Amino acid sequence: MKKKTRSLTKAKSKEKSILGSKSRGHENSQIKFLTRKVESLKEWQRRLSILLKFTKEASTTTNLDSLLVLMVEEAKTVLMAERATVFLVDKQKKELWSKVALGAQPIRVPSDRGIVGAVYTTGKLLNIADVYQDPRFNPEVDKKTGFRTKAVLAAPMRNKKNQVLGIFQVLNRTHGGEFDQQDEEILTLLADQAAGHVENSYLYQEIRKTAQETVIRLAGAVEYKDYDTRHHLWRMSQYSAIIAKEMGFSPEWVETLRLAAPMHDIGKIGVPDAILNKPGKLTAEEWVEMKKHPEYGFEILSGSNNELMEMSATVALCHHERWDGTGYPRGLAAEDIPIEARIASLADVFDALTSKRIYKPSFSVEETLKLIQDESGKQFDPKVVDSFFRCLPQIIPLMETYAPRSDQQKAVPTPAF
Ligand SMILES: [Fe+2]
Ligand SMILES: [Fe+2]
User: Fold this and answer.
1) Which ligand is closest to the CA of 297, given by its number?
2) Is 268 known to be catalytic?
3) CATH topology (fold) of 224-402
4) Among candidates 338, 333, 345, 336, which has minimal Cα distance to 385?
5) Which pLDDT tens digit goes with each residue over 220-258?
6) pLDDT in tens, 316-328
7) How far apart are the CA of 291 and the centre of ligand 1, in A?
8) Which pick of 10, 60, 332, 356 has the fewest CB atoms within 10 Å?
9) Which ligand has the nearest atom to the CA of 267?
10) What is the pLDDT of residues 4-48, one digit of tens each?
11) Could you state, in order of their start, the residue ranges of all structural domains in the chain?
């Protein structure tokens, strides 16, 4: 009986210890499970805070290049990738080109080959752990750059019509291993956002192109109603934008000036045709009439809240003012003359001199440059003249292509407005 009781107690204590170790094992796995949960939540928190930080920065940026650079940095940080690239589609060349590739050389690849080509043609995300095992991968790019690609995650950038505008790609996790499903979801989100920015920028460029062509055609029509003048307006607006960019104005301001400059002579609509088209020299009275065109232009264009119209009105009013104060209509001097007018007036004179008109031959480049240099501090702002000279490597090729010259018989091409 005693023996029986002892063995029962033994069995019970054994059972107890089994139960104890079982529950300890259960506790351990519970702890492990919770630790993993906490770690994954911490990782989500890290990712969310980075995404929020970038979204906040992106909300104050309108320039596409800056936005995409920001997004590529965001992708690298959030997904802990060694490289991130945004490829855009060049439909004409049937290529994908790296619009933004931080830490890498710009590349172009056929749009139907390679990993990004596969994402483009199928419109589906690709997550590849070891790209050298994938027959679609082209190792040539690695050979050229010296970079060793391993893991690739590439998502299509779709617009609202579901068309693929480009590819958002990240390469190699910084701590090794492959990209997971969470990474796929985040990259898809970033690719959609990037597609939105690219689409907006395309639409914006389209609107600006239309606006520019409309402005030039209308301004050209009211000024002289001829073909040469329309081209003059296009050329002088390009020169104005080049100089303004060199002077360090913002891209938005430069674009506004590009559109405003062609309207400088719009007030000539108010000058009688007999004076405007007179072949010989104007009489003193006729000059008085002619010199009214800046104010007519200002009257036509002023009174709007639109930034472009405001700048156009200023350029129209002040494009015949001179740095030394002897210009018209107001005799403003130096920095009292708005900078947009100081730039446009130099661009206007440069084009008038270097192009052939019905009533005059074109000056040589040397003669024109000498004249402009001599007028620095007299007719023109010396700072604008200096910037203009620094821009000659961009301005001269444009002039040679598009300005009708007396020493050349060939017809000049129509500029792409
Ligand atoms: Fe004028
Ligand atoms: Fe002009």
Assistant:
1) 1
2) yes
3) Hypothetical protein af1432 (1.10.3210)
4) 345
5) 766 554 445 778 889 999 999 999 999 999 988 999 999
6) 999 999 999 999 9
7) 8
8) 60
9) 1
10) 555 556 666 666 665 566 677 778 888 888 888 888 788 888 888
11) 23-60, 64-201, 224-402
